[in-house]
Specification:
Elements lengths: L18 H10 L5 H13 L1 H11 L5 H14 L5 H10 L3 H13 L19 H6 L32 H16 L5 H22 L1
Helix pairs in contact: 1-2, 1-3, 3-4, 4-6, 5-6, 8-9
Amino acid sequence: MCLVRSYTQDDTVDEQPESRQIKQKIKQLADLDDRSRQQARDFLLANEQAALPLLVAGLKHGDSTIRGACADLLGEIGTEDAREPLVNLLRGDHSRWVRSRAKSALARLPGGVPDGGLDERIPPPADTLNVIRGQQPERLTAPSSKADKPPEAPAPPAEAVTGHTPQEVQALLDQLDVRLINGEISEAIYNRLTARWESRLEALRRDDA
């Protein structure tokens, strides 16, 4: 008798020799180190056929950074097999950042984004981050030929803001809010930076008291 099993991430794909390494590379997509994330992306793109089922499964990962990164990679691969999972992500994910990555990925597929193009972005304010840091923000992932990768706004060391006013630090926090809404940074990065800058803002206000 022939038994037909439905596909799940943990059975059918595990029969492939490279599946364990692929799973590890998918987890690596959330690494804080730029080079580590880029190395994972390069590996997954170089092994796209084997990685495809696990990238689709990654759209349901508990880490929003991984969900968004998997959506980006599926958009780069450009397979129609990813359309339905990406549409489900676009319509059902609680994270606006993840939904923005699903939209971007769908825009690369032949059928485009369902029901029209990408949402209008919120116009960014003056780049307060660059004023405070005196340099361009790094990217969430290493530089790529793809224009729609979300940039990271990494946190500077505490001494980098010495001498700046609470108003300037508050403006930076406001800008991080806009970048999150625009899908430019992930929730994980937003939470990390916000916690650091809010701590700095509290210290400045105590000094002024």
